[in-house]
Amino acid sequence: MTDLGLPTLRSAGAHAGVGGARLVGVTGRPDTPLLVDRFGRVARDLRVSVTEKCSLRCTYCMPAEGLPPIARSELLTAAEIARLIGLGARDLGLREVRFTGGEPLMRHDLAEIVALSKAAAPGIRIALTTNGIGLDKRIGELVDAGLDRVNVSLDTVNRDHFAALTRRDRLPAVLAGIRAAADAGLTPLKVNAVMMRQTLAGAPELLAWALAEGVWLRFIEQMPLDADRTWLRDNMVTAEELLAVLRERFDLEEVGREDPSAPAEEWLVDGGPLTVGIIASVTRSFCADCDRTRITAEGTVRSCLFGDDETDLKQVLRGGGSDEELAALWRGAMWTKQAGHGMDAATFAPPTRTMGAIGG
Q1: What is the CATH number of the domain that holds 116?
Q2: Can you give the pLDDT at residue 192?
Q3: 82: closest CA among 48, 33, 133, 38?
Q4: E-strand stretches of the chain
Q5: pLDDT at residue 236 greater than cutoff 50
Q6: What single-letter DSSP state applies at residue 306?
Q7: How many domains does the chain contain in total?
Q8: What is the domain range of residue 76?
């Protein structure tokens, strides 16, 4: 089993004062209920990992044997997740929630998680990032529960390349999930593709498929979050390389990024109306405008994908703590968020936990 190490956990005692009203050891934080950090960013987008399990073994994410299992008793329950989402929407300024994994469809109670979260925060938009396997069979219950939007991960429409990249021959199942989401009216329907050297030549084919299906395709630069620790910056496909390959077949006109906190820059394809997005996390970092906060499947707040510090909320949840204590912990965790991923620094080291364990 791959040794993924352990994150640095901060407990309730490190942050919460009497009643959770003050933040012990947090200096200079403005008097605001929002999830502000030292650089003036405000987190409004919550990512919640609900499991470390996945039905695929993508080489840029998981080891062939999967991640070390998390005991069911250590996972947040549907009610605990809903409580945190309700608190975040009511008291911390959160506006959108996305459920991730691992693969969230591996949670049999996913519809319950969505329904309870929607009830706890009626005005918040709830989205799902999934590999699409089995989505066609569950889309009805998820929509009925209150799911608003879906992102599906799909790196290639070449079946052989898909099987090699994911270590599973499941492309037809993914395509069925995408079509089911479209038929259910979950728009805008986004498809995320990680740019890999072995699939670069097939990128125009993937874009042509997306245009024909009417889905919004977003390519993502590969980040150093793979469990096998084989990522090298010199080997990754950059946004500029991808654009050059796409332009051999399509006319691309840069649109840019309307929302500074949105990760994808857009290009109009062949005059529109459809666009293609590129999330250049490595070469065109958008850390300065990041508005995300994350909760792991075990109930810890993670302020940044590339920071190993995690603040334990589950201890307070299961210890009878108040919403005020939880809010104080969460605010304290976000106040100390790092400036950025620091990949250009000579001292850069990837985080101990990988993408499959963090939740995207």
Answers
A1: 3.20.20.70
A2: 96
A3: 48
A4: 8-10, 35-36, 42-43, 45-49, 96-100, 125-130, 149-153, 190-195, 216-221, 252-256, 265-269, 275-279, 292-295, 300-302, 309-312
A5: yes
A6: T
A7: 1
A8: 44-303
